[in-house]
Amino acid sequence: MSTVRLPLHAPQLEHREQARRFLADGERAAFHDAALWQIRGRRDQRAAELPEWEQLRELAAQIKAHTLAELPDYLEQFEANARRHGAHVHFAGDAAEHNRIVHELLSSHGVTRVVKSKSMLTEECGLNPYLERRGVEVVDTDLGELIVQLRREPPSHIVMPAIHLRVGDVERTFREALGAPALGDAQSLTEFARGHLRAKFLAAQAGITGVNFAIAETGGIVVCTNEGNADLGTSLPPLHIACMGLEKLVPRAADLGVFLRLLARSATGQAITAYSAHMHGPRPGGELHIVIVDNGRSALRGERAHHGALRCIRCGACMNTCPVFRRSGGHSYATTVPGPIGSILAPLREPQRHRSLPHACTLCGSCTAVCPVKIDLHEQLLALRQRQLEPAMASSPPSPAEPGAALVPAPGSAHRGEQLASALIGWVLRSPWRLARAGALLRWLGRTFPALSHRGPLRRWTDTRQLPPLPARSFHQRHAARQRGRS
Questions:
Q1: How far apart are CA 89 and CA 290, in angstroms?
Q2: What percent of the chain has pLDDT over 90?
Q3: Residues 174 and 289 in one domain
């Protein structure tokens, strides 16, 4: 069965166009939706086990907000303490500087073979292709990351990179890319991958990891995995490079327990990740280099309406619950971090390229409800939509005071059709009588000519949605009849 194949850094397309490609395979779309909703259900079960769950969310939000407010001080504190433990700390202003620093470190140590654990920051910076063009072999060692790397695809989810694939897809990928025999079940495929990766670990000259949390008080870093690949990648090679966004800081070691209790429960419905590696300085005889990356984060910190997005701990809970993400797939967002949080981060960084993403949202608020650090995701998406409309609104004259005059937008104004529709709806809603007559007309049209909803401008919305049967009577009519029956 065919799948969506994209280059590692795909050019931007409209979200709805890429979503249509994903939905063309109905079986895959249904599998993707069900798999993520099952994980959302497990998240709810784990959260219900903790009576203090909401208090943990509130505390995590406050810790993150405090850290971001005092970020320069905590960065200096972390740097000083990390250096005290023997780590080398580097600062990168953008993706290009991050990639250059990592390559210079590898080149200075004569490294040509690297193993890498999951790191969305290095995906964001395009590190893999950058190193490969310079003769460095980079092997992703997270199983999901390995699968999509072999397929030359970006991850479709920040926690489950290959959630869009099924066993048959993985078996074919291993057969074509690694010469694997016919393996028909997940256990056999996992064992084959383990054997392949073990040889890569033993031959590696350096290990690259991300960072889940960095502790200013101690100068230590924490890497959370379920496969132990980060532990092997940092224990066997002599050189460890840890790449982190500057928002990964927490002030104290005591704060870490709050986030570890929230992270795995929110991400996969586990009580805790299988491995939480705490690293304070390099291993004996080795080197630890920590690369702290800005890449637009300082600018986001200055965004009055959106700086809270920096609280994100990359758990993926907003993706697992989002009805748009579940039904359109992560690749449809054409950005490293997809889903609701990505629909905020990407347009803030590249407004024109990702202009469609704030609209890939129903504003249902489910993402906000599950976010472990209480980011107001749907409110921020709405604010981004409003920001897009500001130039058009500024160029349009104020609405006339007369209700009837508001039906006619100014000549040449932007979004004429939308303005006219909004004015018409406002005119109807200002009169209970007009609202009742309009409701009766729409109910009659819907029952008499059901195909009308799949024609004209409504078609883009109704082609992928099933409208419920329209009732013959309105709620008010039914209520009035019920009251008359009681009298």
A1: 5
A2: 78
A3: yes
